[in-house]
Amino acid sequence: MPPAGARKLAPEPSLRRLPVYLRLLTRLDAEGTRTVSCTAIGRELGLDFTQVRKDLSCTGIVGTPRVGYRVDELIAAIQRFLGWHRRTDALLVGAGNLGRALLAYEGFAQYALRIVAAFDIDPSLVGTEVAGRPVRHLDDLPDIAESSGALVGILTVPAGQAQSVTYTMVLSGIRAVWNFTGARLEVPRGVLVEDVDLGASLAVLTNRLEQASTC
What we know:
By secondary structure, this protein is an alpha/beta fold.
C-alpha cells in the first residue's frame, strides 16, 4: 500500500494524452475561452468525455458542475503535473543529423526543456556550435553535468555506442535518459529511460497506408 497522501502514478496512456489537452487548451486560451468542459474537450479531440475527465483527474484539479474548468487553471494544473512549470535542463550526446535537428528545435521551450550543451567524439563536430549551443567532447560531459545540474540526457548516438554512453551519463549524475537510438538500455534502479522508437511509429503509419490502399 502506498503511504497516506502519496500521489498515484498516472497511467502511461493518460500521460501521453495530457500534452494533447495542453495544446488545445493553449489555443483556447489564446482565443479568449475562459472555461471548458470535458465534453467540449472530448468533442474537439475525438475522445470520450469520461476518459478526458479521468485523465484530467490525475492532475488533482476538480471542475465545477455544469461549468467545467477555468482554462488558465487547467493549463497550470497540467503543467505542474508534468513538471513543465519549471525549466528542465538536458544534455544531448550525439551531434549528428538527428541530434542537430533536436538542438535546433524551438518547440522544446513550450515544454520548459532547455538543452544546455551537446557532446560528440567526432573531431569534425567537437568545437562547433549548433543553435547557439557548443558541441563538446564526450570527455567533458561529467564536468558540464555537475556544473549545470542537468538531470536529463538525450541520446542520439549510433545504437552500438548507446550503452557505453548511457553509463557515462549515469555516472555523471543523469537520472533520466531520452533514448532515440533504438537500443535496449540497461540502467541502474532509479534511472528512468524513455525510448523513442521511430521505426515502430513508422511501421504503424505505413501499415495503415498499406491497408488503406488495398481497400
